Amino acid sequence: MQQHFDAMPPVAANHVPLSPVSFLTRAATVHGDRVATVQGATRRSWAEVESRIRRVAGGLAARGIGRGDTVTVIAPNMPELFELHFAVPMSGGVLSALNIRLEAETIAYILDHSDSALVIAGSEQLPLVQAALALSERSPEVIELPSPGSTTQGPSYADLLDAAPLSGDGLPADEWQALALNYTSGTSGRPKGVVYHHRGAYLMALGTVAAWNMPAAPVYMSVVPMFHCNGWGHSWMMAVLGGTMVFPASTAPEHLFAAIREHGVTHFGAAPIVLQMLAESGAAPAAPLSPALKVMTAGAPPPPAILERMAALGMDIMHVYGLTESYGHISQCLPRESWTDLDLATQAANRARQGVSLPMVQAVTVLDRETGDPVPWDGETQGEIAIRGNTLMKGYYKDPEATAEVMQNGWFWSGDGAVVHPDGYIQIRDRLKDVIISGGENVSSVEVEAVLYRHPDVMTAAVVARPHPKWGEAPCAFVELRPGAKPDEEGIIAFCRQHLAGFKTPKSVIFDEIPKTATGKVQKFQLRNRINEGT
After folding, report:
1. pTM for this prediction
2. What is the CATH number of the domain that holds 485?
């Protein structure tokens, strides 16, 4: 009698839109006295933070921010940015946290593309924002997020705090409503706007609690930039657990170790480059940390030697995999009991795999792109990582063609080539996209090539990843010069630095003929082979 079961539609009592905003009210009620944020000598409880967030949300609403309005934030990790992760969606707005290392030209493009209605900028980022606005077609109001001890000249975060608190629960009318807009380099010269929904952010936070075996009231050190997939969703997760977000003075190893000691940090996330800096730092403790510090890392897997060193420091590393389009991590390399009998090098190699899906993801698999069939679990047959689940983006903002390209046949196609080992663990073998991950930052090779082609001496250019001792990998430019031009590596790099952010600038230039197909397409795999062969 199916009709009887179907004749019970959801009502307000049994169907509430899923949103990470809902975690905040519970945190203030259940964990009100616990410390929520720490920066320097400033400590705020969950009750105080919830009150501040409601006032900031009210201040945003008073400025006309409502459903679907983009609020751009460009600032380093700080308690106020943590608060904005709740306040902006509570107002109905869409949070767009931008990489503070971008150049003015790209920020101007994003401001225009995102239809930015308001910009909130850290004191040190204000000159960058002003330079971007000079290139932008928009002229949104700019509100300053002052650095500790600094004074402000114009509208500031304090003005938002002076507003009347936002009434109501702040939940969206629809859990599919846009929550955040994150820009990723992708494979084209212009960054794509990845739209997150409330439902996905809610499930990402809860799924991470389960996947990371999170305890109550953890002390989490904020290292992952909040402009990277909204800090992997960890801000929202902390409200679930009544935990403490510690904001260190900087990501310098000595400051991170000082914060760990002073505040009893239990967890943090970081790119592999940060782990390498910690492992090689003279500020590292002489004895292993006890209890072990839980660390999540994503991106290119850390070298086995770094993993061994981190283990010696008392840090338990969990390697995860994900993309901006998937809210961050959607698979994890869960260690198996059988690995404990293996030598350290083999254990480290196993831990560097991309692993298995997290609990909140429906499926992470490797498929043959042509047939759609799963590849055999032989560790050799390469396919493409495909993902299905609720922690996937709504789509690319203003780009239905690109959205349709990656969402096909019921799957999100990652563009990452991988194999599946006999134990079911996925391992990436080659990036199908020409994206370089340098120090945890995505660099579009196409964007760098576009700048190189603006140099008067450059006839042909191609950019690929090259191993780098500090950044993991960095852009390497292959250049064919125009007749009569003389090789000048320093000059080429200096030219790029004038037009690109530092992390996008090539760290090396190779002057050589660039291999092409009969139709003139650059064969980048040959360039990568030259680098691997040291030629």
Report:
1. 0.87
2. 3.30.300.30
